Amino acid sequence: MGTTQLESVPEPKYWHLKTVLSEALDSEFSVGEILPNERDLAARFGVARATLRQALEQLELEGRLQRRRGVGTTVAPPRMGVAVGSEQHVWPGAAGDAWHPADCTVTVPPASVAGILETVHGEQVHTVRRSRVTHGQPVAAELLYIPASSVPDLSAIDAPSGAARARAVLRELQRLELEGQDRAVELGSARADDAKELDRLPGAPVLVVTTRFFAAGSTAAVSVATYRADTCRLTFGDSGGVEIHHDPERRAS
């Protein structure tokens, strides 16, 4: 068999620049400090601004930098520790849940979610919006989709929307016997609404955790939680739970 030519391909210029910039962040800048503008940085390192942008984007993806509205590019703090679903048989909103309900509306879910819930085309479900804050910083936003069949007694609740309605939906959901749950994690890009809630720019890298909750032999609810990729690092334990650690020296295996 012939040998691959990849070994002879030189390291991309932006990748080398990313390494140089990373060393500069460690030696010359402190957490929260604003970086010089792109023109000055490109001139300092003798590269094109397009190359610089690629390096900065990679450092942002790795959690070394943050782009903040009206501020610029700053040095990111270490990733914060946040436990995600360490309990396998607990409904959202149960005691000890770190999420804060913000609103609840009745909407048609995205096609991907409708497929998981096995609802008919155009069927509306209860959509609970929740947020999560750690150390005063927003780290995640969640949309929890719950079909009417999972909360049949909700008609007695007077609140038409808002946090009170969200808490009522969650209380009704907890009346079901939770049989299990599973999760999927993927890298994505922040949509406009999530970006605003997470204080990020649209298109910023995020981690999307989709959780299915099972009751009575079917999917009773679906959670789509969006985490800041620059803030969170996921590790998977033997229990099947997901945790997020902030120790910058640790690496997920």
Structure description:
The longest helix is centred in the first third of the chain and has 16 residues, at 13-28. This protein is α+β, with helices and mostly antiparallel strands and 253 residues long. The radius of gyration is 22 Å and the shape is elongated. It has 6 helices and 11 strands. A hairpin with a 5-residue loop joins β10 and β11 (242-244). α1 packs across α3 (49-61).
Number of strands: 11
- Low-pLDDT stretches: 1-9, 246-253
Spatial strand sequence of the major β-sheet: 4-5-6-9-8-7
Order of helices and strands: HHHEEEEHEEHEHEEEE
Largest sheet: 6 strands, antiparallel
Mean pLDDT: 81
The helix-and-strand class reads alpha+beta
Shape: elongated
Q: What is the radius of gyration?
A: 22 Å
* Helical percentage: 10-25%
Strand content: 25-35%
How many angstroms does the end-to-end distance come to? 32 Å
Number of helices: 6
Keywords: DNA-binding, Transcription, Transcription regulation
Protein name: GntR family transcriptional regulator
Organism: Streptomyces lutosisoli
